[in-house]
Amino acid sequence: MITLYGEGRGFRVAWLLEEMGLPYRLRQVDLLDGVEQDTEFLAVNPAGFIPAIVDGGVTMVESIAIIEYLLARHGPSPLAPMVDDPSFAIYQQFLHLGEAGLAGPINAIVATHILAPEAERENWTTGWALDIFKSRLGLVSRQLANTPYVAGDRFTAADISVTYALQFAERTIGFAFDTAERDYIERTTARDGYQRAMDNCLATKAWVAGLARAN
Ligand SMILES: N[C@@H](CCC(=O)N[C@@H](CS)C(=O)NCC(=O)O)C(=O)O
Prior knowledge:
By secondary structure, the chain is an alpha+beta fold. The protein is built from 9 helices and 4 strands, in the order E-H-E-H-E-E-H-H-H-H-H-H-H.
């Protein structure tokens, strides 16, 4: 059985596994409390970040690479258009843009807001990272003006990547989206696979519930 280490971006992987109907075990990793002593996890990912997976003899990190691996190794799946499908290129683009162009830049802002000394929390780099996020979001918005999902008319793993990133921005820096993006998030998160992943990802569920209580 596949073991998924950690939530955070591991939520993407849990969501994909639910959509694909693959059995898995979620092994919690607490980055804020005692990860230095978590020898089992550090043996899986000596770099100490999440998510990671172990699938038989395969050990991997990087949420998007894990998604591509799972779809290739345990597919085929309608969540990943085949290479000769007209939507393949746009699918690949948004699958990666969800991390490289959206969630990645938000990471820099979140880490600076939480970890930097008070006087350095609003610096040039956080402004730059936000501009990167906004410019890439423009590509998402342009696509959503034409199709209900980022790779076209049907839901794919690229929507898992992008939806996670949009929710990450909303939940961490309070980014306010326009109607089209809000409708998109509502559409993708209404799926049973998302709900089941949420039920399994107890840390994410508790975090989101805490945010709702605070607002
Ligand atoms: N590009 C990586 C980003 C992974 C990442 O930033 N994970 C966060 C939690 S969601 C983390 O482990 N941060 C602590 C660290 O990087 O040391 C991915 O998509 O998996």
